[in-house]
Write a structure and sequence with these properties.
Helices cover 3% and strands 48% of the residues. A hairpin with a 6-residue loop joins strand 4 and strand 5.
Length: 129
């Protein structure tokens, strides 16, 4: 059974940092793209950052560029999202998602041109000022 499990969310003051983890089971990351998406109350889901396991290429949305860093540990089947300089507008439920046979530019998975095959249940991030 394929599973994606997110962890690392929590409550943090504005300007602080958190590191989210997404651990996969039931498949390996070879040939996959993994992404972090978020959804705040009353807002549409946003693709925050994506990474392709094959070439390590990454994508960041403009809202997080320069503050967030995505990385992958393929030996641990885990993708991380290091979030620095957090703002109140980063408050959301963060979801990890994966797609098999990622053939396209990595950004297309983040901004929704190509769908994701598997989703985690999410982890809550609350940034307070």
């Amino acid at each position: 059974e394929v599973q994606l499990v997110e962890s690392g969310g929590g409550l943090v003051q504005a300007g602080g940092s958190l590191r989210l983890s997404c651990t996969a089971s039931g498949f390996t990351f070879d040939g996959y793209a993994i992404g972090w998406f978020r959804q705040a109350p009353g807002k549409e889901r946003e693709g925050v950052s994506c990474i392709k396991s094959g070439d390590g290429s990454t994508y960041y949305s403009d809202s997080v560029k320069g503050r967030f860093t995505i990385s992958s540990d393929n030996t641990e089947n885990t993708v991380y999202l290091q979030m620095n300089s957090l703002k109140s507008e980063d408050t959301a439920v963060y979801y990890c998602a994966a797609v098999q046979r990622a053939l396209y530019y990595v950004g297309t998975y983040c901004y929704g041109r190509h769908g994701m095959d598997y989703w985690g249940k999410g982890t809550q991030v609350i940034v307070f000022s």
